[in-house]
Structures are given as structure tokens and as C-alpha cells.
Amino acid sequence: MNTFVQDFGAELERILWPTVAVSALVAAVLLLAWWGSDWRERRRIAMVLAKYERRKP
């Protein structure tokens, strides 16, 4: 019984660690992509606002 639990735990650990690592990597890439697009969007909005400010009399 104890050997079965140890084998099952080792197998679960063998499967789980790469899954957690890949999930963390994907989450980091998606977060960076979202942050980058958010930065570009803020820059675009700032440019549109600056253009509007220059047009005002």
C-alpha cells in the first residue's frame, strides 16, 4: 500500500511539475503581451489627445 502511494506520488510529481512550469511560462508571456499592448494603446491615446490639443484655438 505504501509503495503504491509513493509510486503514485512520484508519477504525479513527474507529470505535475512540467505542467505547472509550462502554465507559468504561458501566463508570463500572455501578461507581457497584454502589458505591451496596453502600453501601445496608452501611447496611441496620448497621441490622439495631443493632436486634438494642437487643433484647439
Question: Care to give the gist of this entry?
Answer:
Helix content is 95%, strand content 0%. By secondary structure, the chain is mainly alpha-helical.
Write up what this structure looks like:
The chain is built from 1 helix and no strands. The chain is rod-shaped. The relative contact order is 0.06. It starts with a helix and ends with a helix. It has 57 residues and is mostly helical. The longest helix has 54 residues, at 2-55.
SSE diagram, text form:
Blueprint: H1 2-55
Distance between the termini: 84 Å
Q: State the helical fraction.
A: over 70%
Largest sheet: none
Count of runs of 4 or more consecutive helical residues? 1
Order of helices and strands: H
- In terms of DSSP E residues, the strand content is under 5%
Number of strands: 0
Radius of gyration: 25 Å
Backbone structural class = mainly alpha
Name the features.
1 helix; rod-shaped; 57 residues; mainly alpha; single chain; 95% helix
